[in-house]
Amino acid sequence: MKGRIFWLALFFIGLSWILNSYYAYSKRLDEPIFLDHYIELSVGEEISYLTLYYLTNINDNSHLSHVNFEGIDGYVAQDDFFFNDFGFYANEVATDLQTFTHYSLREIRIELVSYDLEELLKDNDELIIHEMKLFFDDGRDITVPIGEVVLRKPYEFENMLSQPWSGSNSDNLSIMAFSAGENLTIDSMRFKFDEVIKDHVFLKMDSMNTVSNQEQPDLLDSSWNGLHGIEIKDFKFPFDLEKDEGFKLYSQISPNFIGFLESSILITGSTESGKPFTSYSFINNHIPDLKQKDVDRIIQEKIKGGSR
User: Which own/partner contact pairs does 271-276 have at CB distance under 8 Å and 24+ positions apart?
Assistant: First the structure.
C-alpha cells in the first residue's frame, strides 16, 4: 500500500513538473518585444546615442551586436568602449532593469555616427523611423517595430524666453516657468507626438503678470485638475507678453502610458520689433517602471499585432 502511494505521489510530481515546464515554454517569446518609443533626437553632434527598451525571456543569453535602419548601422555602446578585430564595438552585455515571472526588461544604448545621418538629412529636416533591424552575435537578424523615433537636424534658436525654474515629481508631472526677456508674441506651442499619443500626454498653460524666481514645489502636490490654466489644445494663439511677464507650462504623462517618451514642446513667436524666435522645453517620462500587468498587456498587444 505504501509503495503504491509512493509511486502515485511520484507520478503526480512528475506530471506537475511536465505541465509547469510546458506552461513556461508556452510563455516564451520567439523574439524580443520592444516598447513603443516616441523620441526626438538631435543629430548635430559627432556622436548621438539612442536608448531603447525591450522585453525578452528571463534567461535570454543572446547578445545584440548592432542595428540597421535606412541603410545606417548603429552599434551597441559599451561602458569600456573596447574594439574587436573588425573595429566595431563588442557585443552588448545584457543587464536586467526589471524581472518578471517569465520576462526581463532590458535596454540597449545605440551609438549613431552623425556623419552618416547627415547624409540622410541632407535634403530633409528629419528622418522618421518606425522599425529597426537587429543583428545578434549568433548570426540571427530580426526586424522589430519600435514606435516612432524622429532623427532631426538641430533647431536654430533665437531664445527670448528665460526659464527661472522647473520641477517634476514621480507621477510624471512637470512644471516649467518661462519669462519674457522683452515684449513679444507667442504664436504657437507644438508637441511633436501630439496626434500619436494625445490621450496619454496632457499640456496646460497658466499665464502670469510676473514670474517669480522662486520655485513653487507645492504645485507638484496638486492634482492635474487642481492646477490653474488652460489646456494647450484649447488655448487661443497668438498671445502677447510684456517684458518680465510669463507663464507656467504644465505637462503630465498618463499612468496608463507604458512606452517611453523623450521629446520637446516647441514654442515659436516674434518680438515686438518683428524678430522671430524659437524656444523649447523638454518633456519625457522616467525609465520605464513596469508592473506584471503592464508586461502582460504589452505582450498581448504586440503578439496580436496591436499597438497603441
Answer: 271/160, 271/182, 271/183, 271/184, 271/185, 272/182, 272/183, 272/184, 272/185, 275/158, 276/158
